[in-house]
Specification:
The chain is built from 14 helices and 17 strands. It is of the alpha/beta class. The protein folds into two domains: about 5-55 and about 300-400, Aspartate Aminotransferase, domain 1; about 70-300, 3-Layer(aba) Sandwich (Aspartate Aminotransferase, domain 2). Strands 4-12-11-10-7-5-6 form a seven-stranded mixed sheet, sandwiched between helices. Strands 1-2-3-15 form a four-stranded mixed sheet. Helix 3 (about 60-70) runs antiparallel to helix 11, helix 4 runs parallel beside helix 11 and helix 12 (about 300-325) packs parallel to helix 14. The longest helix has 25 residues, at about 300-325.
């Protein structure tokens, strides 16, 4: 059966919770993407910080293809070799002793929040159940994770939401001190707020969170769904800060485009998830784990991580040069290859217009709220692709400030 597909098909058959771009990508290679009409785009979006090694990286294709010929799925009634290899690699490379695998960042955070409450109940009683998160945070789209996330727009219409969640001001130590108590079971922080505007945490704020958690017998959770697996310039952003959490969540770049999420924690905390307390039908499946293991192998090298820092500098320099000419941004911020350009007050609320202008010049970018244009290209993006993407972005900005 032959089915003709156009962008209009989306509006006819899909639930309308997304508003995708006006073109349909059909092929990708490295940091270039082609649409149905054969137009070539430079990809500065990276699938929202997912395609860590670009599109169709040959070693990832080979890892997936090889595993696809062996074993796809056996469920967690059994274990499998790829999941054990991946867990071993992650625990050897991080603070963690134990790993739990799922399919997405939201599921990884759901597991982390449940584990924090279970650990507190096991050791201190059920009254110790409150979770502190940051305003403007984003932790996923399940009912629990949107509640912990600090953006009310994501919980509108879904009440009643889970209780026991309090939000503090990001990077405000006094706000955190005022909210934490002996009823607090966990403090959850993104080292860089991604959806909230690509805003890095202050080191002093994370240090205070670590000390306050220790003081109140609470767990410190770092949501590294967006910052993890090389995007910060270190394997995980906590390494950039030198502050170790009790639980870390990872997804996005971990699979290089294949769906996988992970929760990493210590031996002591992990014990609270005994047999039957939590699970995931597809979590830790051989296909996802085989790909993620190859991603980890390729990313966790000095050459790759140093390259992320060098690419950050090149992209930042280019964005600042564009801004010097057009004056559209009041800040360029971020860490590694998770960067945000904050629109000047004269253009406030128009980040989506910049995205649309970039589309017209065959460049894929992102937004982070109404005022920030976000960039999350592949960690191995070629310098020539950065330069070409910046040239297209400048052309888009020129159209944006002087519309035709």
């Amino acid at each position: 059966m032959s089915i003709s597909i156009t962008r209009a098909t989306f509006d006819k058959v899909m639930v309308p919770n997304y508003g995708p771009a006006g073109f349909i990508p059909v092929k990708g290679l490295g940091s270039r993407v082609w649409d149905q009409d054969g137009r070539e785009f430079v990809d500065f979006a990276g699938g929202i910080a997912v395609n860590a090694l670009g599109h169709c990286h040959p070693e990832l294709v080979a890892a997936l293809t090889e595993q696809a010929g062996k074993l796809w799925h056996v469920s967690n009634v059994f274990t499998n070799e790829p999941v054990l290899k991946l867990a071993t690699a992650l625990t050897e490379a991080t603070f963690a002793d134990r790993a739990f695998f799922c399919n997405s960042g939201a599921e990884a955070n759901e597991a982390a929040f449940k584990l924090a409450r279970k650990y507190a109940a096991d050791h201190f009683g059920t009254d110790k159940h409150e979770i502190l998160s940051c305003k403007n945070a984003f932790h996923g789209r399940t009912l629990f994770t949107v509640t912990v996330g600090g953006q009310p727009k994501y919980t509108e219409g879904f009440a009643p939401v889970p209780a026991g969640v309090t939000h503090v001001e990001f990077n405000n130590i006094d706000s955190l001190k005022a909210a934490i108590s002996d009823r607090t079971c966990a403090v959850v922080i993104e080292p860089v707020q991604g959806e909230g505007g690509v805003l890095p945490a202050d080191k002093a704020f994370l240090e205070a969170a670590r000390a306050l958690c220790d003081q109140h017998n609470a767990l410190l959770i770092f949501d590294e769904v967006q910052t993890g697996v090389g995007r910060s310039g270190s394997l995980y952003a906590y390494m950039e800060y030198g502050i170790v959490p009790d639980i870390l969540t990872s997804a996005k770049s971990l699979g290089g485009g294949f769906p996988i999420g992970a929760m990493l924690t210590t031996e002591k905390v992990a014990r609270s998830f005994g047999i039957g307390t939590h699970g995931s039908t597809y979590g830790g499946n051989p296909l996802a784990c085989a790909v993620a293991l190859k991603v980890l192998e390729l990313v966790n090298t000095p050459a790759m991580l140093d390259g992320v820092r060098a690419r950050h500098a090149r992209l930042r320099q280019g964005l600042e040069a564009i801004n010097a000419k057009y004056g559209v941004f009041k800040a360029v911020r971020g860490m590694g290859l998770l960067m945000g350009a904050v629109l000047a007050d004269a253009y406030a609320g128009r980040a989506k217009d910049v995205l649309k202008a970039a589309e017209q010049h065959q460049l894929m970018v992102l937004v982070a709220g109404l005022n920030v244009v976000r960039f999350a290209p592949a960690l191995n993006i070629e310098e020539a692709d950065i330069d070409e993407g910046l040239a297209r972005f400048e052309a888009a900005i020129a159209d944006f400030v002087t519309p035709r």
